[in-house]
Predict the 3D structure of the following.
Amino acid sequence: VNELKRALAVSNEARSLFKRADIKSGEGSALLTAAFANYSQGNTEEALSLVEEAQELFQDEGFHKGEDEALRAISELNDGEERFSKAMKAAEERRALWEDLDNCGKEASALRMMAQIHLHSGEMAEAERIALESRTLSQKAGDKAGEVVSLLILTQVHLDALQKAEPGEDFERPSPAFVKARDKANRAAGEACTLAGKSHDRNLRASAVLWRGQVLSYSRRHQDALRVAQEAEKLFKLTKDLVGQAHANIMVAYLHRAFSERDKAVEAASKALDLAREGKDVNVEAQALECLKKVEDKPEFVPQIQYVQPEGGETQAAPGAAPQPAVPTVVAPK
């Protein structure tokens, strides 16, 4: 808290200096820093007001990079059903900015944000259409990391369809809807893993691998899913990503429970809880606590998906935060 207060004081002082010097881009950057400090203290409305002011300053000066960052933050801060229109408006403005400047890589990034907003609003058809468009632009720009994130969004879309599809009474011959969704999810996750494996970004690779594990779990390939989830945990460990490790251990816990390996399930869930607390992520801590309770109390279940943003994707947790792909976790059914 003290560090955030100091950051807020420094950003306010910097803003005053830039304002006196009439350097709008500097003033806007200081406002973004202040917005991040306010957001971290739970002052979302104040953070949003500061980001909107920063966006106007960047726009006045023609500082496109700053305007992009501000629009991205506006979309993030407005994410959620009740603010869908504001979030989408900012994302669309961001897309228009880079489309006008003929920067297909940045335009693809804006499209991914639009796809994620549709995803979290339950508009899967639009999410799929825009994610495919973002993938095409990422390929054109030679942005393999961006293409991976687009594929992870598509994976989430197909997993949603897979979750809703009934496999049928005979799992050896599942329903056509289940097979179609399963094959699409497997293809998207597999391509994401292949591409991510060629990059030097271990965190990106770990996220792709964990989504692959989720697809395998939903395809009832639980043994393969467990192996892949454990691989993801090792990758997150290499990057010292405590929250990523927690997500992986939650999945491992549920999968052990599916094999009636209660002690191993409890061990993994407890580890996830410790990692979430060490990583100071209260949302993942709550998921780990729920997981621990369910693997201790419930008999058998099939793991189910829950979307976690990260970003899913490429979204930010707060203004100025580094973009990360979405990371999945699993929850037991009610």
The two ends are 37 Å apart (CA to CA). Residues 299-334 have pLDDT under 50 and may be disordered.
